[in-house]
Amino acid sequence: MTSTDRRDFRGAWDGAPAAPWPGGARLAVSVVVNVEEGAERSVADGDPVNESVYEARQEVVGAPDPCMESHYAYGPRAGYRRIAGTLARHGVPATFSTCGRAATRLPWLMADLARRGHEASCHGWLWETHAGMAEAEERAIIARTHAAVGAATGVAPRGWHTRSASSPHTRRLLGEHGGFLYDSDCYDDDVPRIAQVAGRPHVLLPYAFDTNDMRFEPGGAFVHAEDFSRYCLAAFDRLMDEGATEARMMSVGLHLRIIGRPARIGGLEALLDRMSASGEVWFATRARIAARWREAAGLPEWTPATSAAPETAA
């Protein structure tokens, strides 16, 4: 039966394919570190409003907010080094989802993550939703962000993720830009998929807000480091079991200013300790996961649209 619904609720109802991950791994694990500091909205930077989301939710209206700016500055000043060190000790490559304005203000951090072999992807120019954004404005933001992140690392980014709500045309604009292998603006599955976008195969990599340190924020579910690691490990154990017969992917979302705090970083250490000990996990950047999924679908190696030949699945 052919559905006329604009939304796909069925997914891999009849079962996802067997895991295509290297070495017979049961599960692909994607660690995503969001780099938003310096791109949070700030009246002092000429933005119309101040950011109001952090340890305490309070919006300063019509005036600069040095308190909020100082909270965010903790991320690149202190949090990054803890996170980078933890990833290095476990040999885990990560995707640093980076806002364009942050990339321009944190050149040393961007150079360091590139030197360590991590991926830098795009997270919007500012840390802001794209819901309701005019198409022309969004098109310009996508291009500007792609250029800024590429200039900061020396490597053209291949991925995109919008803060929370994207617009109805975000994905099409990414396809029209031509420089994006994948986007992470989907939360509806535990397995990647391929969609036709602007006439080309485009990989959708699911992201998650539950296995995410954002739940340390006020009103969230995490208080202690163990809350984060226990919850993420519950997801890990279930996905590892399912990965014995079907492809599975797990995303772990982190933020420099959140998990990088001294009382929280132990949660990431504990999580990676147990994941690494399993021996059947493929830690990979999102670009590598997307490339592997394309390969399993019989598609040729991805290239930017400006130099790509027409593609068809095998």
From TrEMBL:
Listed GO MF terms: hydrolase activity, acting on carbon-nitrogen (but not peptide) bonds
Coiled-coil stretches noted in the UniProt entry, renumbered to this chain: none
SUPFAM superfamilies: Glycoside hydrolase/deacetylase
Record GO biological process: carbohydrate metabolic process
Gene3D superfamilies linked to this entry: Glycoside hydrolase/deacetylase
All copies of domain NodB homology, residue ranges: 66-284
Biological role: Is involved in generating a small heat-stable compound (Nod), an acylated oligomer of N-acetylglucosamine, that stimulates mitosis in various plant protoplasts.
Family: Belongs to the polysaccharide deacetylase family.
Protein name, per record: Chitooligosaccharide deacetylase
Species of origin: Albimonas donghaensis
